[in-house]
Amino acid sequence: MPRSTEAAITQSIGFHFDNTYTKLPELFFQPAKPANVASPQLVIFNRALADVLAINYSNASDAELAQNFSGAHLPAGAEPIAQAYAGHQFGHFTLLGDGRAILLGEHTATNAHTSLRWDIQLKGAGATAYSRRGDGKAALAPMLREYIISEALAALGIPTTRSLAVVATGESVYRETVLPGAVLTRVAASHLRVGTFEYAAALGSEQNDIAPLKILVDYAIQRHYVGCLAEENPYRAFFDAVAERQAQLIARWQGVGFIHGVMNTDNMAISGESIDFGPCAFMDAYNPATVFSSIDTHGRYAYANQPRIAAWNLARFAETLLALFSPDETEALALGKAALERFHERMNLHWLNGMRNKLGLTAAHESDFELLQALFNLMHQHAADFTNTFRALAHSLSGLANVAPLYGNEPGIHALFIAMEFHSWHERWQTRLKAEGQPIDTVIETMNAVNPAVIARNHNVEAALAAATTGDLVPLDALLTALREPFVETEANRGFREGAPPSGTPYRTFCGT
After folding, report:
1. Is 284 a catalytic residue?
2. Burial state string for 466-476 with b = 16 or more CB within 10 A and e = fewer than 16
3. For residue 273, which of 388, 186, 173, 362 has the smallest C-alpha distance?
């Protein structure tokens, strides 16, 4: 392609890069170059997100977008790198890095008097210095899964990285089977992870030098938590700020039955965004021990364990920061312990407040935890669908008879709502609501604003992912359309609100490497 044409394509996208991470010492990254691909073809482009990013794509054809988002043409100002980091994977520490992801740079835009910054990363763009003999490529279906799940979380109002585009490469990826290849463009507040700080601390420990860690922490504070600089101990305040965002995030996951599936420390972003959507999924029938990941054979990352694992990950994060908390080891340990205790308190508070909201409760009461646990026990006992139970509860406030026409074909909810113990619980809940004195219509409206009608249900996701092999994008487009308004019940999205069809085998997800 002539140079003038290539320049026109890259200019038409309108990224505005202002790269700060590449100003850090090179021990934190290595230069990288996206691999050439055989025949890039745009599968999906997130125009709504492109508008949020304020990038100009209006003059670009699908073919031109495919060239850009496959890595074939680098936008002006891009400085492609692979980031170094470490991580505790299923509890075991290892040195890692971007083995199949390449950070193009940091795009900036001004929105309502605020300057915003996003990492633009290509995932599946080829081998890097950290690929560990891997090919650095990705298959189409896992990239579509990330697109679906990240956009589903965003529509639910849950902090998350986003997906801007998926491009089929026209090449094969060789795993257990031969799969069509793809590149996903991920947008993130940053890709700083707990594992990034573990990496810096490990290097510093080898050299008896905390300088690399301090440089990284100072950078992270400036980028994400500049308010910490006004605190008496900015580093402890930094940890507290990260822990607060994680407490809010995990509570939000729990509130919609989302199971991340691989909560390694390299998958915990200090920005508080959900990141890396390999074996993740939403729970159907409520069971606190639910695990979807095919490799999580011991249930380490089960639904009920997510708050505990978040605390474990934050303990590893605190360990990296101890020398910055205080030069006195005893004082540093005391500060770290107190910080972790505050996380547990915050996690419990955010979880309880979120669950109160799901029941339409606005004021705290000492019996709330027991009321919630009694409901969850009944849901578990009757295998009631997590999402639809809370929508059914809202409908039940205008009469229990209103539930059957909507959910009578769901065995778990039917069994729950006819159970004698449930009727007793329902009376207790109604008494609690009456004590608050809110009009029933207000309670129903409140509940429907926080309890989704539509989630990325596993059977619908699988139907959409079939596009990877069939090329039929209709199920994918239909699912994404339904997910954009998750709190609304319409005839158009009715099919996406239904619980999982009966199956004799548990649903399993895979990492998609």
Report:
1. no
2. ebbeeeeeebb
3. 186
Shared domain check, 217 and 160: no
Candidates 472, 452, 476, 456; CA nearest to 464 is: 476
218 contact partners, CB below 8 Å, separation of at least 6: none
Number of domains making up the chain? 3
pLDDT grade for 357, boundaries at 50, 70 and 90 = very high
Q: Say which residue, 4 or 172, is predicted with more confidence.
A: 172
Contacting residues for 37 by C-beta, under 8 A, at least 6 apart = 70, 71, 72, 167, 169, 170, 171, 181, 183
Give per-residue pLDDT as tens, 403-449. Answer: 888 887 899 999 999 999 999 999 999 999 999 999 999 999 999 99
User: Are 92 and 220 part of one and the same domain?
Assistant: no
Instruction: Burial-class residue 349 by CB neighbours within 10 Å (0-12, 13-18, 19+).
Output: middle
- Residue 350's domain comprises 195-285+298-358
Residues 56 and 86 in one domain: yes
- For residue 112, the model assigns a pLDDT of 59
Residue of 98, 119, 240, 266 marked active site? 266
More confident residue, 113 or 136: 136
DSSP H or E run through 218: helix 211-224
Maximum pairwise Cα distance, the chain: 75
- Please check whether residue 351 is in contact with residue 413, taking contact to mean a CB–CB distance below 8 angstroms: no
491 and 412 both lie in a single domain:
yes
Indicate if the alpha-carbon torsion angle 284, 286, 288, 289 is positive or negative. negative
Q: Of the given ranges (2-16, 250-264, 270-284), which has the lowest mean pLDDT? A: 2-16
Q: Is residue 513 part of a domain?
A: no
- Over residues 194-250, the pLDDT tens digits come to 999 999 999 877 677 889 999 999 999 999 999 999 999 999 999 999 999 999 999
Strand partners, 158: none
Q: Which two tokens stand for residue 224?
A: 């994400």
Same structural domain, 254 and 115: no
Tokens (6 digits) for 128: 């890097």
**DSSP of 432-494:** HHHHHT--HHHHHHHHHHHS-S----HHHHHHHHTHHHH---HHHHHHHHHHTSTT---STTH
Per-residue pLDDT at 503 exceeds 50 = yes
